[in-house]
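Narrative summary of target 7.
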Amino acid sequence: MRTKTLLLTLFILLKFAIQYFAIAPEYDLQRDEFLHLDQAKHLAWGYLSVPPVTSWISCIILFLGGSVFWIKFFPALFGALTIVVVWKTIESLGGGLFALCLGAISMLCSVLLRLNVLYQPNSLDVLSWTLVYYTFIRYVQTDQVKWLWFCAIAFAFGFLNKYNIAFLALGLAPALLLEPVRKVFIQRNFYLALGLVLLLIAPNLYWQYQHDFPVMAHMQELQERHLVNVQRIDFLREQVLFFIGSLEVWLIALFALCFYRPFRPYRFLGFAFVFTLGLFLFFRAKSYYAIGLYPIFHAFGAVYLETILQNSWKQYLRLALLVLPVFLILVIGKTLLPMRSPIEIVKHPEFYQTLGMLRWEDGKDHPLPQDFSDMQGWSELGQKVDKLYAKMDHKNATLILCDNYGQAGAINFYSRLGIQAVSLNADYINWINLEHPIKNVILIQNADDDDPKRKDEQPLFERITLVDSIENQYAREKGARIYALEGAKVPIAPILREDIAKRKRGEED
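Modeled conformation, tokenized:
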């Protein structure tokens, strides 16, 4: 027991160490991270793009000082806890030291390395999926009601983190009906646990109702602007790549769940895998939405492989299974993670192109992976807006208005003058304070804006000056322009209120 505990501790420490050294100094935070941090300043039971849990974690981060160390700590923590849950699943299935190490290494040397680099709901989403599966497995093993309660809490917390976990339920429910475990549907405690889920998520559902279910509008926008470019064959190809070093582990788990007698009580998981993956394919989901499916299958695959590789000559196969994920992550780790500078990536793009990492949501290839490009240019923007703001008259009556949430959040994070920028995009549209008079506006507009001379604003201000732009050639925001709109001739707040109303009605240009 002591050996196992020491090994698990080593894997956890190694996980944290890798995540902290996985980002080259040339990279800023990623655009979504800024938004999630700002949500802590506007606590609510829901947001336009995500449920509330991320804002709660952001509160802790800000309480701890809001440094990059703590921003990166929590996704690394969720990745480490995913390893712990897989470890515990293997123990519950009777796995020994080899199975435990294989499961941990499979998690450590996988796409989770990249996922856990960014402070987004995705890391906790994968942990939540794994916890739900684990607690339900424990219920099947023990028939103890407490595991149903734990399962309900894990699902509710996962739902309040990211609505993606609904696909788990949609895939698991019909799978349970196909197996003897369907008897759970006639048990009173199952419905009490379901009631607990509804009770825990009710505040968020009520928030959605109060705000006309913005999650539906968000899903429609994703479908129209982003998911339409998702090719199903690319989705399937990337499923293979996510855990390429341990592909044989989760694949053999699907076989074992069908044909290995000790795993027969858990065969519903195989059906759930097929149903859930089918739903993702049908809806043309982004490939990473499905990552939460795989950790639990690595637990089953590791135990089965330990069972069939018992003979002494098969010890070499065991060693190969342990070494392969480590070898592959050493080969592709610098590609998978933002460890190379943008200049290096542009000089040697071949491997990135082969893995499809240069293809963005628009369906086109670009010089950098989209996440990497989304980590460029933000500190430059914050510094330039600070410099302009310091020169402005009527600072207390100056509004910093951005074209998108990434710009607003980046300015708020990197500003050294305490600036609070806003936008008519994402949740910032609900955070604009129009109670004070507005004399000046610092306006940040995307490079592709169709009004570079600000003809629309010229009647409203005495002076309009193009001051600067984002010059970082690798930034997704390259060319975004910074304007100074000074000396308002008319009240600006009513105009902005009308713009906000139009945006909320979906009437924006």
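The first helix runs from residue 2 to 20.
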